[in-house]
Design brief:
- The chain is of the alpha/beta class.
- The protein has helices at 3-17, 22-37, 77-87, 108-117, 133-141, 156-162, 168-184, 206-216, 246-260, 278-281, 303-310, 320-323, 327-337, and strands spanning 47-50, 93-95, 121-126, 146-150, 191-197, 220-224, 263-265, 282-285, 291-292.
- A 9-stranded mixed beta sheet has the order 7-6-5-4-3-2-1-8-9.
- Mean pLDDT is 87; it is low at 1-6.
- Bound molecules: S-adenosylmethionine and iron/sulfur cluster.
- Iron/sulfur cluster (SF4) binds next to loops.
């Protein structure tokens, strides 16, 4: 691509990334992928997932955390800053969600401050069990762009059965606090979504989740497909045995969202991308610095094995701009572009449109 076209792509993307709507944001990223794929040398990504902790205070049944033998660990603030530097000056946005609870990290506030200082767009998921008034105020004041609060269940009984250790009322209170804090701060952000993983147990509650989002004053209800061989057994996944029912439930949720004026983020079964765009557009950096194409690669207590077989380098030991064009990344892109699905990509729900 001619350098001036690259500049145009970049400046358009920058404008879209500043927009508060994730739908516009994803659209911009998807659009840019087409252009990026044709480049012989791929520009390092504008977006990174930086996992800051693998500690958690819950044990949700569908989450790999519930089967992990690894001891949880935190990324120190100094190393976080080093990774932001190593990511490069093109970086525009970070997702601070990993397989752990970000609000447990005692330096999380300092990390948000550092991101704000750099003008980065920030989002994260939280179980909201620790979302006090003070946290809500700081999140709003520090200009966090998006917060996704996990609600795997729109009814108390389902929620507490799946999100083991969580209390339904307390998490609802966390959402109300965030809504109030951004009002007090006079901001439109954070954009607040309540999120549900689509499982046999949660499918009947998708419409109720939309209603809950409206009742709590959130902006959106988000649904996502189940990732990974969660129990690490290789057995058929016990959590979703009726994939054929997903589309009808989501259509009903969409109608309810329209009626209530709630945004909906949802998978589109059967309409996934023919080639996964992620190795061209973003990366997932585990707490130990291992660079992976996405969070699917972290599943089911296999971190050491996956890092040694499928890791794409260590962020901080090398700048991302270098790793991004070395053999492991080039080979992964080549395999995906030619229709192969290497390693953990084989189990990815994205091409089937169910993530
Ligand atoms: C891994 S959690 C980490 C952040 C935080 N602890 C939380 O629960 O929101 C991020 C999101 O992934 C979802 N999740 C958990 N297990 C999953 C799985 N196997 N597949 C897809 N999403 C999953 C959670 O419900 C949550 O919304
Ligand atoms: S989904 Fe989040 S809260 Fe639940 S066990 Fe996993 S990391 Fe913890």
């Amino acid at each position: 691509m001619h350098p001036s076209r690259t500049r145009v792509v970049r400046s358009l993307l920058r404008r879209e990334l500043a927009a508060p709507s994730p739908r516009r944001w994803m659209g911009a990223v998807t659009w840019a992928v087409g252009a990026a794929r044709r480049l012989p040398v791929v520009s390092p990504p504008l977006h990174l997932h930086l996992e800051i902790t693998t500690r958690c205070n819950l044990a949700c049944t569908m989450c790999e955390h519930s089967v992990w033998s690894d001891k949880g660990r935190d990324l120190p603030l100094s190393e976080f800053v080093r990774r932001l530097d190593a990511a490069g000056p093109q970086l525009r946005s970070v997702d601070l969600t990993g397989i752990g609870e970000p609000l447990l990290h005692h330096e999380f506030e300092a990390m948000l401050t550092e991101c704000a200082r750099r003008g980065l767009r920030v989002r994260f998921n939280t179980n909201a069990t620790l979302l006090t008034d003070r946290w809500a105020e700081r999140i709003a004041e520090l200009g966090v762009d998006e917060v996704h609060v996990s609600f795997d269940g729109a009814r108390k009984e389902t929620f507490e059965r799946l999100r083991v250790g969580g209390r339904f009322e307390k998490v609802q209170e966390g959402v109300r606090r965030l809504v109030a804090a951004r009002g007090t701060a006079g901001r439109r952000t954070p954009w607040i979504s309540i999120q549900m993983v689509l499982l046999d147990d949660t499918l009947p509650e998708v419409v109720e989740l939309v209603e809950l989002a409206a009742a709590l004053g959130a902006d959106a209800a988000s649904f996502q497909g189940l990732l990974g061989d969660v129990l690490g057994s290789g057995a058929q996944n016990p959590f979703i045995t009726r994939p054929g029912e997903v589309a009808a439930h989501l259509a009903a949720a969409e109608r309810r969202a329209q009626a209530l004026g709630i945004e909906l983020a949802r998978p589109h079964p059967g309409k996934g991308p023919s080639v996964c765009p992620l190795p061209w557009t973003q990366a997932f950096v585990q707490v130990d610095g291992t660079v992976l194409p996405c969070c699917l690669y972290t599943q089911a207590d296999q971190r050491a094995h996956i890092a040694s077989h499928f890791g794409l380098g260590k962020l901080g030991e090398e700048p991302l701009a270098t790793l991004w064009n070395e053999a492991p990344y080039r080979e992964l892109r080549g395999a995906l572009a030619s229709g192969q699905r290497p390693g953990p990509c084989a189990g990815c729900p994205l091409p089937r449109g169910i993530y």
